Structures are given as C-alpha cells and as structure tokens.
Amino acid sequence: MRDIPTPPGALELAAAIRAGEQTARSVIEATLETLSTKDRAIHSVTHLFSDEACRQADAVDALRKQGKTLPPLAGVPFGVKDLFDIAGHVTTAGSVVLRNNPPAKQDAAVVQRLRQAGAIPVATLNMDEFAYGFATQNAHYGTTLNPHDTSRMAGGSSGGSAAAVAAGFLPHSLGSDTNGSIRIPASLCGVWGLKPTFGRLPREGAYPFAASLDVVGPFARNVSDLAASFYIMDGYDSIPEPSGADSWETLRIARLEGWFADNLSEPMARALESICAALGVTRGISLPEVATARASSFLITAAEGGNLHLPRLKEQADAYDPATRDRLLAGAMLPADTYLRAQRFRSWFRDQIHAVFRNEADVLIAPAVMGEAPRLDEPTVIVEGKEVSARANLGLFTQPLSLPGVPVLTVPVLVSEGLPLGLQLVAAPGCEEKLFSIACHLERAGLAGCRFPEMKATV
Amino acid sequence: MKESHPDTTLLVQARAAAIGLDLSACCLPGVVTNTDLLSQYADLLNHHVFSDECEPAFEYVP
Description:
By secondary structure, chain A is α+β, with helices and mostly antiparallel strands.
C-alpha cells in the first residue's frame, strides 16, 4: 500500500485556525464530509454530531473575528468511543440495551475539558459491546476494519477510535482501557495511544465496565497531540513544557523479559530489538507471577462487568450480543472467594511493580501484542506454538499491566515495512511525562510514528 | 482450552439459582464454556499464598 503525506495533527490544525489560515467551520465541514464518505471503508463511526459541531465551529470563528485569544485546541475535531456521554445524546456503549435511556444531560468530564479547550466532538466511534472484547466486532453496529489492511482486525475494544485516527479521518480521539482496549487497537492500527495512571483522569460520564481497572485516554497521530489531549483532560489550561529532569537520556530504561519475551512474531521481535538498541537498553527485568496477574485482571473484569449488568441480564439477556452475554453471565456468577483473591493479588502485584520502579528502572518496554493484526477470516494468534482465539488472547501482554494501574503508552514502531506493530512503554504511577519524553525521542529519531495508507483522507 | 467438566453445567445452574438468575437454554452452553475458562484462571490464583496482611485492593494506592 502506497504511503501518502501525513494529514495535519491537532496542534497544527489549531495553529492554522488561530493564524486565520483556515476557519474552524471549514475544518469541521471537511472532517464531517470525510467521515460521511470515506468511513464506509472501515466502519469506525457510529454517529455524527454534524449540527452541533458546525455551531461550535462558528462560535470559534466568531471569537477569532472579535480578536479574542483562542484556547489551545480551538476548532480541532475529535471523536469519542461510543461510551462517553455527549450532552443531548443517548450513550449506547456499543449496545442496543441502553438505547431507550434518556439523553445525557452533560458531556463526560474529559469531553467537557476538551470542549473548554476549544476541541469539537464530531462523532462517536465503534467499540465492542460494553467494551468487552479486543476485536471491535459488534453484533449491533458492525465490525471496524483495520485501515492498513481491511481484511484484518482493528483491535478493540476502542477499535473505532484507533482506526479513525489511523485512517487520517480525525487527528485525535478518546478511548477507554480496562484490559488493553486502548493499547491493542493502537498497536494493530499503528497510532499513539495512552492508558493513563488509574484514577488520574476523571471517568464521570464514561460508561463503566470494570471499576477496578477502567481508565480513559487518548489516541493521536503524533506525540505532541497525544500529550496535549492528555494534559487538557488532566485539567491543565495550557500544555506544559517537558521537564528537563525527565529527558529520556537520564531515564533508567529496561526491557521486560520472561512472559513478555515469549510468543512474539518475528517482525515484533525485530522491532523490539531495534527500539531497545536505539535507546541503549541493555538491562532486562522479569516481573513475578505475570500469568497470575493476567488471570486476576481477567477475573476482576468478568466479576465486576457481570455484576454491573446482572439486573439487566435478568430482564433482557436476549438484547445482548450472545458472546458478550455469556461472558458477563459467567462473570456475574464467580464466587466471592475468587474475586477477593484476585483483588488481594492485585495488592501484591502492585507492590512488586512499584518496587521495580523504586529500585531498578524508570521505564519498562514490552510488546503490546504478539505481532501484526490478525486476519478477520482467520482470527487467531499463536501462543505457546498453538493457534488460539485472537479475541481471547490479544491481551496477553496488556492484561498483566492493567492490574497495577500504572501508565502505559503505546508506541507505533516504524522499523519494519509491514503492518503496524506497537510497543508498550510503562512507568510508575503519575509518571506519564517520562513516557512522553521517550516517545518524543523515538518520534524525532524516525523510529516511531503513524504511517498513512492510500485509502486515507485528510481533513 | 480443556473440555468442560460435565459437572460444570450443574455448577452453573446452581450458581444461577443462588443469585435468582433464570438461565435460558440458549445461554447455557456459552456460559458453561466461559465458566470453565474463568475456572482455569482461578486455579492460578489458588496457587498463590497470601499473607493475612495482604488486603484486597479496594482502594487504588499509587
């Protein structure tokens, strides 16, 4: 597939609007046109907010005409996973079960913050039903396809959010991550994605899945946009300058070994080697009991998701996608002993990884998935030499790192010519700036970034 | 994935009854399969020995 020039990023668009080179209205209209006409190739969009978006764009243009200072993302379009509240619209969370709910009275907290910064929500984006999956194969709203190869998975559950950015339809978008739902689609679609520290960004107005693990976070085409979106959602009025103390050269970087070194495709193994070599990483660290960490994350998710949905499942189980329904029902019936053991293991495992960050490393590197996006007609991955279900196993490397609540940034590597591959950069809680520092270096060095295939459109 | 233990169906039906859940026949095979999968994960946890002081992570401690 032939590469085409990179579409403008969020900050680039904001600068063009501030300088009067483009109006917000023209940017939003072009984005809506792109989403209306080109998205049918990948099915990333579930709903467009055309009228509201145009009204907000006109308000931005009016402010500029009055000579007012525009906020940092004024006029920049973004999309949200279909589980974020948008005032005046029903939040469906990728299901038909909630479609008779009343419309949201206000935006989700992070959407409010982006809107206050001038950004304009233009669309909701496809997801696995109730975020329970890694494939964005939705029985009600269709399957989102990978823009780099539409015969392949986009990943999930925030697949629409990753695919729309990868396709160049939107400069940034929002997703949520419980077991890997930002990191897996970011990796398979080849975009930047951030799972922030658990609890750092407000979740109000984001439809829940598993309260112990849910976080919300951004996707973007470049690191500056990713950081801008994150800091604005974190409550900053402007985008902070990177601190010299967190310059990548001063950071202790180590590679995760053991569990995270097995089951890699050849291109992924090569990509990991190349990035570690470029960062001068010589040290490897093995975390203890990673299989149990993954199991705990899986069990906590099943139990909390099942418990959340049990009252509705008793009344209208048939309205759920059968695959989601059966997972939720099994989770709802997990014994309390199993759930509490998983939560006790979460405490133990968190202590282990915190000790690693205290004593041994500032940032850890690991693969995000085993390799390239699986084919939709052959949805399998290889684990321990066997072909197993991709839907059940794409979280092999993300689920264990969900459990301790640490921030993880997904890096789209550019060291191979094939389909996108993503790595995880992992830091101690609250240390997102360290991740941005390394990501920035990799981007500037041309080792990481987004590639845009021919089907993609510019805004 | 290991095969469903024949007793899993009975186990699932008993658990459903305990929480007042009327499982329809069409759900049962899928729920049994998922219950088997969750049981495999739970087995891993059963091998971990916890100190009495290791509390469930009800609150997030960064």
